[in-house]
């Protein structure tokens, strides 16, 4: 059924991934950084599903499923951390969190 | 439907069926408002709207006209685009969820056609409903947030927390039925409950699941007694505070459509959908059967609203996480065991009933213990769970009523007299 | 769906998803970013549908859009109640330029690799009864997925469930009042 | 049978673990139940193992070697944790667990008031475990394990009253000297493995020829391939270990100091069992000692010198436990003398009887010390026979036994050794002949000295009139200051004179019963020895029992035996007589200006010489090295490294901006580089 080359999907995936990466690099709101990470995960998921479809194997979809679940867990913990940071510092700029400076 | 059906026909049929469905749903919504006001009035010993038309039957029309011409306010501090879009999201989501609900039997059983009384029968139908209705929260959160009003924001946050909390129990409660049905397709689930299928309505195998589902569903659609997001007394009107006119009525529409959806799901999953002991084979009748069943649930919603007081917010959360979720997990485990071991349905049903009875007994016992304490003079004291002074909480014996409560109250009075505690 | 309709829909989805993804990182207001991300997720779900992964598409909506992003929105609206705060000075202004250049290089390199005949296009497909399309045709989408999940990856599945439990506990601990 | 051995090992270990972990919380009765019960179980299993061995005929089949667990396989080296039951280990196990049980029982009374009650019994159980492991191991490596563990137990128990600086110092000394011996043993094991490819005694090995003298790999045949130097080095290194463990010249110094430990410890570890491990080792590896013509004479010479040397010191000591300690050293020298004459069973025999009477002596001394509240100085004693009758009689039996007065146990075993020496002297040729004659002379002289100092001790404690000031009132674990304070008050109390004697009471039954049992053993224990003296050589049960392992001792002719016995008896009686003349009316201490006396009294200044010649130079060397090496080289080097690191990190830390996004950028750069690599590679 497919007439679209696999690389087109993968390029979309690469684009989304790069956008997510840049988001991580340039944004200072940890929530948006977090969203960018989700974007990167989703870009990878797209690649997985694409390859699953093209290779005619369900494995890629299983990976996506697991990534999804782990992403949920990650978001839960990450948001809890952000909220607790906000509680103590009233500020969630990542540049303010530089206690690890050398 | 046969694979030979041309794509264009499929698209056209879907569009037509969707249009019909939307009209039906909107009509039901309109009349639900009227019926609700009448029923609540009856329960409260009033009359309700009875002037416009026979029994006030034209009241929804009057309301619609009023709403349409009402001035719409856009707060200055609102995020305009989202403020305007949010109610639409709510309605669109509510309507989409209904797409996979089969409201009647195939016109010619055994010969599927594109004109069967459902918009789409996808093999992940139930998941579709769950996932779309999980999007419903966006309309509320965005509406509340974009109003630029603290009350609205708080209402929407409450709503988000509440819906997330109860969605888990809801999904888990349904999973028991899914295990019995062995399919996610709504049509197939109903067929499983007809005489051609397993011949039982899954309520008999899943009484516990049904109970959890109903409670969670009431919370999920923000209806009383779980209507915290729009609690007038606490949050003026929650996320609805800044809305008026048509957009306000869009939210109402979404709420009622959601009610219809969850009622339909309850009907489909637990009460056999459009089936009724073989009668559903008469095509027209199956739709009536379905409508009657859904109407029963809708009435139940109204009844609940008229009867039960609103629950306190922390208790709402506790109920969801500490009571419903464990029960739902228990139900899922029990059901999985029964299905995996190949036990007959009535075993599962009996276990479910036993759990319900046990839970009720424990709850009753507890409530008796904490309801009232009788002092030595015979006067009724406040239960220990009512905390008068926050700072002496740990000193109050919160164990069992009776003497602990007496001691607690006496200690409380002593502390108050000492001036060590400020009320 | 096939032929030109497929290609048109692919491009529409691609443009829409990339645009909404750009929205995630370009909006100043975090709520708009979150909404953009939700849109992206929905577009991706449609991609999945296009690729025949119906279950994953629905689960994408259910979990990502329905649960994860609600949580995000929840936190965003709670924390950034007033996003019109004066933005603090960016301490790494140069990083934007570097990031943009690196991003372009990355996309360029990846695209070059993908288009210049990597072995992906000729990758061997699974055959026989294990093949996804066959299982889907015989038993349906969910059954195919379920078989793959519980036969080949049951351990990963269990571990994931453990991860979730740990995450819940972690969130509880973090969320407790200090 | 070997499974029985495992059960000999396990109970004390369990007891140690239980008491060590829970002892603090257990009531006394429970501690005693565990401590006694485990050792009693151990003893019962050892007894049944022994009896099961007796039931096996012919004698040569009396061996069982079971590998319980393979500990390590490295190339040719296979080390099994194997348990060996043969006549030698069975005898040793009986002695260890039997005497150990008696001393455990005794200790319940002796340590009754001590706050470290549970700790004491936990250590004691540990010692029993270690010692049984030592004698039941079937290879030198696990013997070494036991060897080290008994050293540890000894260390722990000498330093039991760790509040006393003297005790901890003594414990340290004992450990250090023992470790010297352990090194010797290790080197011997390495050499053995290098040349013979085994550390097993060799039962059940391919070379095992049951019935021949010394079977297994360590047979004379297989050992012939050793070069003459190696064949001398191995036994000498082994003997270094033996000398350290069994307190022979010149590594004996730790044993007198070890008397800082509780008296039951001295009785069990530093008299009856652990210090005899060296004797056991020589007997066990006797095949190696016969390889070189020089090995056994050296052992004998050192043993003889030690015997005389220690006996002379014992003559002058005033602390009753020190007298006994030097006596132990002297008797151990005796055992080595016997083994050097090729009569290993005579050594083991003396080991056994010595275990009885020396344990009895120590326990009797302990009873006296206990009754006197910690007093150990002979000058503060006297006349105790009226107050401590059971102790008096049992002590007398022990003194008779050690002095070699017939028919007590010591007579038989000592006689065996002297007879063997004389027989050896007449049968070997060359210079060795004179050595053995000399050794025999030393032995006889020492026998006389032994009788002299033992009766001096005996008279000092029990006869005459009481010279002390009544029992000291503080516990054993008193601190230094308390003791001084107490000493001041005793001066005052001494004026009260005789009446103080009536404050002294016989120790409780839990202590006297072991004394009585040991006294019985000291009386009749010698009857398992050889009756060759009476021209009835068919009765020598112990010799015959041990013969499959140790080989039969060379048989002496009757006149020689008579000569030897007569001489030793005469000397013993002479010693007794002198003691009676001098001390019969009670011990009188006089400062003596006799230089020899001063020399012996000050233990030949060995400790002082050691400090001057060894310890001070070593300390000086250490200080110099510390200043030079550590200050300059090591510290300087590490400072250099540190400075280098701090320089590098000063640069590196600029990369650590603390901005998360910076780090993310670094990751992205890495990713881009990797991708670019693929692009370039094509």
UniProtKB/TrEMBL annotation, chain A:
Its EC number is 7.1.1.-. One of its GO terms (molecular function) is quinone binding. Belongs to the complex I subunit 4L family. Pfam families: Oxidored_q2 (PF00420). One of its GO terms (cellular component) is NADH dehydrogenase complex. NDH-1 is composed of 14 different subunits. Subunits NuoA, H, J, K, L, M, N constitute the membrane sector of the complex. It is a multi-pass membrane protein. This is NADH-quinone oxidoreductase subunit K. Its main location: membrane. The keyword Translocase applies. NDH-1 shuttles electrons from NADH, via FMN and iron-sulfur (Fe-S) centers, to quinones in the respiratory chain. The immediate electron acceptor for the enzyme in this species is believed to be ubiquinone. Couples the redox reaction to proton translocation (for every two electrons transferred, four hydrogen ions are translocated across the cytoplasmic membrane), and thus conserves the redox energy in a proton gradient.
UniProtKB/TrEMBL annotation, chain B:
It catalyses: a quinone + NADH + 5 H(+)(in) = a quinol + NAD(+) + 4 H(+)(out). It is an enzyme of class 7 (translocase). GO terms for cellular component: plasma membrane. Its main location: membrane. Its EC number is 7.1.1.-. Keywords: Cell membrane, Membrane, NAD, Quinone, Translocase, Transmembrane, Transmembrane helix, Ubiquinone. The chain crosses the membrane at residues 6-32, 81-104, 124-145, 166-187, 199-219, 256-276, 282-304, 316-337, 343-364. InterPro entries: NADH_UbQ_OxRdtase_su1/FPO (IPR001694), NADH_UbQ_OxRdtase_su1_CS (IPR018086). GO terms for biological process: aerobic respiration. GO terms for molecular function: NADH dehydrogenase activity; oxidoreductase activity, acting on NAD(P)H, quinone or similar compound as acceptor; quinone binding. Belongs to the complex I subunit 1 family. NDH-1 is composed of 14 different subunits. Subunits NuoA, H, J, K, L, M, N constitute the membrane sector of the complex. This is NADH-quinone oxidoreductase subunit H.
Automatic annotation (TrEMBL), chain C:
It is a multi-pass membrane protein. Gene3D superfamilies: NADH-ubiquinone/plastoquinone oxidoreductase chain 6, subunit NuoJ (1.20.120.1200). It holds the Pfam family Oxidored_q3. It is found in: Cell membrane. Its main location: membrane. GO terms for molecular function: NADH dehydrogenase (ubiquinone) activity; quinone binding. It catalyses: a quinone + NADH + 5 H(+)(in) = a quinol + NAD(+) + 4 H(+)(out). NDH-1 shuttles electrons from NADH, via FMN and iron-sulfur (Fe-S) centers, to quinones in the respiratory chain. Couples the redox reaction to proton translocation (for every two electrons transferred, four hydrogen ions are translocated across the cytoplasmic membrane), and thus conserves the redox energy in a proton gradient. PANTHER family: NADH-UBIQUINONE OXIDOREDUCTASE CHAIN 6 (PTHR33269:SF17). This is NADH-quinone oxidoreductase subunit J. It comes from Thermogemmatispora tikiterensis. The lineage of its organism: Bacteria, Bacillati, Chloroflexota, Ktedonobacteria, Thermogemmatisporales.
TrEMBL record, chain D:
It is a multi-pass membrane protein. GO terms for molecular function: NADH dehydrogenase (ubiquinone) activity; NADH dehydrogenase activity. It comes from the Bacteria. It is found in: Endomembrane system; Membrane. This is NADH-quinone oxidoreductase subunit L. It comes from Thermogemmatispora tikiterensis. NCBIfam families: NDH_I_L, PRK06590.1. The keyword Transmembrane helix applies.
């Amino acid at each position: 059924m497919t007439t679209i080359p696999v690389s087109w999907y993968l390029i979309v995936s690469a684009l989304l991934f790069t956008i997510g990466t840049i988001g991580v690099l340039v944004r200072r709101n940890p929530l948006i950084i977090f969203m960018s990470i989700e974007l990167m995960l989703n870009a990878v998921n797209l690649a997985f599903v694409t390859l699953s479809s093209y290779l005619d194997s369900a494995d890629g979809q299983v990976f996506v499923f697991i990534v999804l679940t782990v992403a949920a867990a990650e978001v839960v913990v990450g948001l809890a951390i952000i909220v607790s940071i906000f509680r103590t510092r009233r500020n969630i700029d990542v540049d303010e969190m530089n206690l690890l400076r050398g | 439907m046969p694979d030979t059906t041309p794509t264009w026909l499929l698209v056209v049929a879907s569009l037509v069926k969707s249009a019909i469905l939307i009209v039906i749903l909107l009509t039901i919504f309109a009349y639900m408002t009227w019926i609700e006001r009448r029923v609540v009035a009856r329960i409260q010993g009033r009359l309700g709207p009875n002037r416009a038309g026979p029994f006030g039957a034209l009241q929804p029309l009057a309301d619609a006209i009023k709403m349409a011409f009402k001035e719409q306010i856009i707060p200055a501090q609102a995020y305009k685009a989202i403020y305007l879009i949010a109610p639409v999201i709510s309605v669109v989501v509510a309507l989409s969820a209904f797409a996979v609900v089969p409201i009647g039997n195939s016109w010619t059983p055994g010969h599927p056609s594109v004109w069967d009384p459902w918009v789409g029968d996808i093999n992940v139908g139930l998941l579709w409903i769950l996932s779309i209705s999980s999007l419903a929260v966006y309309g509320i959160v965005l509406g509340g947030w974009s109003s630029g009003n603290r009350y609205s924001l708080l209402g929407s946050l409450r709503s988000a927390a509440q819906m997330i909390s109860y969605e888990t129990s809801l999904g888990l409660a349904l999973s028991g039925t899914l295990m019995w049905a062995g399919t996610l397709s709504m049509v197939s689930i109903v067929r499983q409950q007809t005489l051609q299928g397993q011949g039982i309505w899954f309520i008999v195998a899943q009484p516990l699941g049904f109970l959890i589902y109903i409670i969670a569903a009431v919370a999920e659609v923000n209806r009383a007694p779980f209507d915290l997001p729009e609690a007038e007394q606490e949050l003026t009107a929650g996320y609805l505070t800044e809305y008026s006119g048509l957009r306000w009525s869009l939210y109402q529409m979404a709420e009622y459509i959601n009610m219809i959806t969850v009622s339909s799901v309850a009907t489909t999953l637990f009460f056999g959908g459009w089936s009724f002991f073989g009668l559903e084979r008469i095509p027209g009748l199956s739709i009536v059967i379905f409508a009657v069943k859904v109407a029963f649930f809708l009435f139940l919603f109204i009844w609940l609203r008229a009867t039960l007081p609103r629950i306190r917010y922390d208790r709402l959360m506790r109920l969801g996480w500490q009571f419903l979720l464990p029960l739902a997990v228990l139900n899922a485990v029990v059901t999985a065991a029964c299905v995996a071991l190949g036990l007959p349905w009535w075993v599962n049903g009996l276990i479910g009933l036993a759990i319900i009875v046990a839970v009720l007994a424990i709850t009753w016992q507890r409530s008796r213990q904490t309801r009232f304490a009788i002092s030595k003079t015979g006067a009724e004291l406040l239960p220990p769970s009512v905390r008068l002074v926050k700072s002496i909480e740990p000193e109050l014996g919160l164990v069992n009523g009776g003497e602990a409560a007496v001691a607690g109250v006496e200690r409380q009075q002593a502390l108050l007299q000492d001036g060590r505690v400020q009320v | 769906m096939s032929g030109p309709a497929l290609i048109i829909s692919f491009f529409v989805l691609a443009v829409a998803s990339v645009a909404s993804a750009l929205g995630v990182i370009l909006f100043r207001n975090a709520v708009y970013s979150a909404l953009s991300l939700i849109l992206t997720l929905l577009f991706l779900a449609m991609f999945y549908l296009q690729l025949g992964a119906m279950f994953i598409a629905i689960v994408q909506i259910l979990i990502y859009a329905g649960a994860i992003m609600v949580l995000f929105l929840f936190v965003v609206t709670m924390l950034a109640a007033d996003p019109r705060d004066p933005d603090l000075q960016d301490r790494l202004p140069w990083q934007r330029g570097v990031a943009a250049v690196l991003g372009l290089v990355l996309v360029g390199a990846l695209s070059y690799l993908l288009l210049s005949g990597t072995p992906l296009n000729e990758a061997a497909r699974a055959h026989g009864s294990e093949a996804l399309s066959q299982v889907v045709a015989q038993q349906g989408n969910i059954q195919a997925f379920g078989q793959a999940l519980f036969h080949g990856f049951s351990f990963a599945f269990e571990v994931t469930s453990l991860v979730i439990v740990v995450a819940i506990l972690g969130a509880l601990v973090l969320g407790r009042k200090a | 049978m070997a499974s029985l051995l495992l059960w000999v090992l396990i109970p004390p270990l369990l007891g140690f673990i239980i008491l060590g972990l829970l002892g603090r919380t257990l009531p006394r009765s429970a501690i005693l139940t565990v401590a006694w019960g485990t050792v009693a179980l151990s003893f019962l299993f050892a007894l049944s193992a022994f009896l099961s061995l007796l039931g096996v005929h012919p004698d040569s089949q009396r061996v069982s070697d079971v590998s319980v667990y393979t500990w390590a396989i490295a190339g040719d080296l296979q080390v099994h944790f194997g348990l060996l039951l043969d006549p030698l280990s069975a005898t040793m196990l009986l002695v260890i667990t039997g005497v150990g049980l008696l001393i455990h029982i005794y200790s319940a009374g002796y340590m009754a008031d001590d706050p470290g009650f549970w700790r004491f019994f936990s250590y004691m159980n540990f010692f029993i475990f270690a010692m049984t492991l030592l004698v039941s191991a079937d290879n030198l490596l696990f013997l070494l394990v036991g060897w080290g563990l008994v050293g540890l137990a000894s260390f722990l128990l000498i330093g039991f009253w760790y509040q006393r600086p003297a005790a901890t110092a003594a414990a340290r000394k004992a450990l250090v000297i023992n470790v010297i011996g352990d090194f010797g043993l290790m080197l011997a094991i390495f050499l053995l493995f290098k040349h013979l490819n085994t550390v097993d005694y060799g039962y059940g090995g391919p070379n095992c020829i049951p019935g021949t003298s010394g079977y297994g790999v360590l047979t004379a045949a297989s050992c012939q391939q050793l070069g003459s130097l190696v064949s001398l080095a191995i036994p000498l290194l082994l003997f270094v270990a033996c000398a350290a463990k069994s307190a022979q010249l010149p590594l004996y110094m730790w044993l007198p100091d070890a008397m800082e430990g509780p008296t039951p410890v001295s009785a069990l570890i530093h008299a009856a069992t652990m210090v005899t491990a060296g004797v056991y080792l020589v007997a066990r590896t006797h095949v190696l000692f016969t390889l070189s013509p020089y090995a056994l004479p050296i052992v004998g010479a050192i043993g003889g010198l030690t015997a005389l040397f220690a006996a002379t010191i014992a003559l002058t000591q005033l602390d009753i436990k020190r007298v006994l300690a030097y006596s132990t050293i002297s008797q151990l020298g005796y055992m080595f003398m016997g083994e050097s004459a090729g009569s290993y069973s005579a050594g083991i025999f003396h080991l056994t009887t010595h275990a009885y009477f020396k344990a009895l002596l120590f326990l009797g001394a302990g009873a006296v010390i206990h009754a006197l509240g910690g007093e150990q100085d002979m000058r503060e004693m006297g006349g105790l026979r009226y107050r401590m009758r059971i102790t008096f009689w049992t002590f007398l039996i022990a003194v008779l036994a050690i002095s070699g007065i017939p028919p007590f146990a010591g007579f038989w075993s000592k006689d065996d050794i002297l007879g063997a020496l004389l027989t050896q002297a007449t049968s070997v040729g060359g210079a060795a002949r004179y050595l053995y004659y000399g050794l025999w002379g030393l032995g006889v002289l020492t026998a006389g000295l032994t009788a002299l100092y033992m009766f001096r001790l005996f008279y000092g404690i029990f006869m005459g009139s009481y010279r002390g000031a009544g029992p000291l009132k503080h516990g054993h674990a008193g601190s230094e200051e308390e003791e001084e304070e107490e000493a001041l008050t005793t001066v005052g109390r001494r004026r009260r004179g005789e009446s103080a004697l009536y404050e002294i009471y016989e120790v409780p039954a839990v202590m006297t019963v072991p004394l009585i049992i040991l006294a019985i053993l000291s009386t009749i224990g010698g009857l398992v020895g050889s009756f060759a003296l009476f021209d009835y050589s068919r009765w020598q049960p112990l010799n015959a029992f041990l013969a499959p392992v140790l080989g039969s001792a060379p048989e002496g002719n009757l006149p020689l035996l008579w000569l030897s016995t007569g001489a030793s008896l005469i000397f013993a009686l002479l010693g007794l007589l002198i003691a009676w003349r001098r001390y019969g009316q009670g011990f009188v201490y006089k400062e003596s200006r006799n230089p020899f006396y001063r020399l012996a009294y000050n233990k030949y200044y060995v400790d002082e010489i050691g400090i001057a010649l060894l310890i001070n130079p070593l300390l000086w060397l250490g200080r110099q090295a510390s200043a030079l090496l550590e200050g300059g080289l090591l510290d300087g080097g590490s400072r250099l490294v540190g400075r280098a690191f701090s320089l590098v990190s000063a640069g590196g830390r600029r990369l650590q901006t603390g901005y998360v996004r910076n780090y993310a950028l670094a990751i992205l750069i890495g990713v881009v580089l990797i991708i670019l690599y693929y692009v370039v590679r094509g």
